[in-house]
Amino acid sequence: MSSLTLRARQHARSDKERKPRPARDRYDRREALAGYLFIAPWIVGFLIFTAGAMIYSLVISFSDYNLATNRAQPVGFANYALLFEDPKVGLALANTLFYAVMAVPLEIVVALALAMLLHRLSRGAGFFRTIYYLPKMTPAVATGAVFFLLLNGNSGAINQFLRIFGIEGPQWLIDPAWVKPSIVLMTLWTVGGTMVIFLAALKNVPAELYEVASLDGAGPVRRFFAITLPMISGAVFFNVIVLSIAAFQVFDQAYVLFWRDQSNASPDAALFYAIYLFQQAFRQFDFGFAAAMAWLLFVIIMAITLIQVKIGNRFVYYEADR
Prior knowledge:
CATH architecture of the largest domain: Orthogonal Bundle
Mean pLDDT: 85
Structural class: mainly alpha
Low-confidence stretches: 4-8
Number of helices: 15
CATH superfamily of the largest domain: MetI-like
Largest sheet: 2 strands, antiparallel
Number of domains: 2
Radius of gyration: 28 Å
Strand order of the largest sheet: 1-2
CATH class of the largest domain: Mainly Alpha
Order of helices and strands: HHEEHHHHHHHHHHHHH
């Protein structure tokens, strides 16, 4: 084939590709429009119920807004100044931080241990995966009612089990030193979601890496720290961030165990930040102060997340880095 004929064919092909361009542009625009129409309900819902609510809460955080009188009076930064004057805000923040430091590492360890056990199962893995994930689907009120019976200091099943070995169990729901550990135990009951993420990450670790390490004489502990942990570091990083955010918003577990029945005096050790915010908003009807509390919590969570991202990126292994 001569170069002239080849050049002519290439020119004709380029003309064919050039001609339908307007039709292709119209098709692309119609396709993009269809995509936006499909996600329009989510966009509208986000703008109204999330972004709109956040902006409105920021506005009323600078006012004295009382739902009982339905009046909003601008007070400037008075609500934010009150955050540093109210001793219960500091107590609630300290309790929440203590709970987060205790709960997040334990959730990671327990969920990873369960995921590794399920990863080794060849038969019945689906059944056990379902069993371990079911508590995640259980309503918080039902879980709280069960743990209220389990953690009863006098007749609870946990303390009765400890008495078999001659151990006198603590007053989980009364002793301030054991209040937060009791809530952590209740939280560990629902690590199924975290476990599933770890299990998916473990299944993506190449088996040949373990084979090579075994040939080099690496034991199980060395293989875990040299292969497993680096390969699933992305999942660990994700779970740490998600669990940290959830820990700073802990509400259901503490409310069901300690604050549902107002006839009983609830210990200050169970006063978490989200519970105090709820009390200010829906019992004192001081929505201005509650909105200021919410924005303070937002800033704290954002700062902690940014620190975790800054530090975590140094230790996370990404597939694209190979």
